[in-house]
Specification:
Blueprint lengths: L13 E5 L6 E2 L2 E2 L3 H15 L3 E5 L8 H6 L3 H11 L3 E4 L5 H8 L6 E4 L17 H9 L3 E4 L10 H7 L4 E3 L1 H15 L5 E5 L8 H7 L5 E4 L4 H7 L14 H10 L4 E2 L3 E5 L8 E5 L8 E5 L1 H12 L3 E5 L12 H11 L4 E4 L2 H9 L8 E2 L4 H7 L5 H4 L5
Parallel strand pairs: 1-4, 1-7, 4-6, 5-6, 7-8, 9-10, 9-15, 10-11, 15-16, 16-17
Antiparallel strand pairs: 2-3, 12-13, 12-14
Length: 394
């Protein structure tokens, strides 16, 4: 078990909290502040226990000068002030005298937010390359390091692995909950245990399938990846997305676990990806050579619901159709409604799926919605996350 923020005396200590404020911002306006809200419990705990709080986060990717303006954390500082109901000192630098003075002038319960850690990636990838000199500099600003950015814990960056290797460390409440829920689901699932996997490519989920097929009772597959599995069964899938390089992998999984893998039996098809295009519903064995399957059909929704309704635990990762367009979002919406009503532990595995659930208004209807994308997937694959493994055990 990892040390947590509760294991430290925080009073008058400079506490660096690595948050995940990687939120969508357009023209300085935050369209979704869920990740900021998710960090508040840890930040408020540090404030209430007299810490001098130093917040760090990345935002987007910084490859050229234009990315500096686009990925400025200033709007996050403004929103944080509103949510915390206290002043947040924003330092528009990632190092230097202005930052050092702001940290040195901090009093117990005060908060500083440092500019986007990935500003350090411009020119050379000091942040994402876990540059030791940068990590040492940032570590010199604090006395204690807390990782509360689950969404970046699968990356070894200077602002997580780097600093944590140099300071007394622990995890925040957000990361603690993510680990507790996801690790418990894998190690001690309630049964029947079903997994719903969607998304585009099989290659993105190979590790998840290989790990969970040995743990889950059923794996329900939708989205673009379903048509690679159907092609592996020699179905005609027309112009549907097929991950050609992984057809053999799908054949192997189907040969060894045929009773566990549940595939679509009907589909919403169209001639192209367009919200105004004419759509048809066809059985999986009736997909035409010019058809593109872009969502699961109503019979598949009913089939999936039969497995889900008898499940005691469900993990869902990946939309089951091209849900960005309304014409192909019905399967994902239907699945969301089914899962929201289940008398079961329901876990949404971050990324696009989490965004869909939240945007549809079902945020409070699930047992847990992960804040991770890649981090969640890697944990479900059974991998160790660098940003977590570096944290000291109790």
């Amino acid at each position: 078990m990892k040390k947590t923020i509760r294991d430290f005396d925080l009073y008058n200590k400079r506490v660096i909290i690595r948050c995940d404020f990687n939120v969508p911002i357009s023209d300085g306006v935050i369209s979704d502040d869920n990740r900021i809200v998710a960090s508040l419990e840890t930040i408020n705990y540090a404030i209430n226990n007299g810490a001098k709080v130093i917040l760090m986060s990345h935002l987007g990717r910084v490859k050229e000068e234009a990315d500096l303006i686009k990925n400025d954390l200033k709007p996050v500082a403004i929103r944080l002030e509103q949510l915390l109901n206290r002043r947040v000192v924003f330092i528009n630098k990632t190092r230097g005298k202005e930052l050092e003075m702001a940290v040195n002038n901090l009093k117990a319960g005060e908060v500083v937010l440092i500019q986007n850690t990935r500003y350090e990636d411009l020119g050379s990838k000091r942040e994402s390359g876990n540059d030791l000199e940068l990590a040492k500099y940032w570590a010199s600003l604090g006395d204690i390091y807390i990782n509360d950015a689950f969404g970046t814990s699968h990356r070894a960056h200077a602002s997580n692995v780097g600093i944590a290797s140099l300071l007394p460390n622990g995890v925040g409440f957000l990361v603690e909950k993510e680990l507790e829920v996801l690790e418990n689901a894998i190690k001690n699932p309630q049964r029947p245990f079903s997994v719903v996997l969607g998304g585009a490519k099989v290659s993105d989920k190979i590790g998840v399938i290989e790990n969970l097929v040995n743990i889950a009772d059923f794996i329900l597959i939708g989205g673009g990846m379903a048509y690679t599995f159907l092609e592996a069964l020699n179905y005609q899938v027309g112009k549907s997305l097929v991950d050609k390089e992984n057809i053999d992998f799908c054949k192997k999984i189907l040969d060894n676990y045929s009773s566990k893998i549940i595939l679509p039996i009907d589909n919403v098809v169209a001639g192209k990806i367009d919200d105004n295009v004419e759509t048809r519903i066809v059985l999986s064995e009736e997909i035409g050579k010019n058809d593109m399957a872009l969502d699961i059909g109503p019979k598949t929704v009913k089939l999936f619901s039969e497995y889900l309704n008898k499940s005691k635990m469900v993990i869902w990762n990946g939309p089951v159709g091209y849900s960005e367009l309304k014409s192909f979002s019905s399967g994902t919406v239907s699945l969301c409604k089914i899962l929201a009503k289940l008398d079961a532990v329901t876990i949404v595995g971050g990324g696009d799926t989490a965004a869909s659930v939240i945007n549809l208004g079902y945020k409070d209807k699930f047992s847990h919605i992960s804040t991770g994308g890649g981090a969640t997937l890697e944990l479900l694959e059974g991998k160790e996350l660098p940003g977590i493994s570096v944290i000291n055990d109790k």
